[in-house]
Design brief:
69 residues; alpha+beta; 16% strand
């Protein structure tokens, strides 16, 4: 399974221009929801929980997934 990486370009400050701030809000499935994947015969099968997927993806990106989630 793959997921889209969201990247934000680095912006350099301009003299005389106020700083800009932003934040993200992630709206995804609940962590206990299963993710599904098609097998080689075209059948839809349960793959893993969204939490397990998120922990695995975090590890591949080199950071720890918060243990309380």
């Amino acid at each position: 399974m793959t997921a889209v990486y969201h990247r934000v370009p680095e912006l350099r400050p301009d003299a005389g221009v106020p700083d800009r701030s932003s934040f993200t809000v992630y709206m995804g499935p609940r962590y206990d929801m299963p993710l599904y994947q098609y097998d080689t015969e075209g059948r839809l099968r349960e793959y893993q929980s969204f939490r397990d997927f998120s922990v695995e993806k975090a590890g591949k990106l080199g950071y720890d997934f918060h243990s309380r989630v």
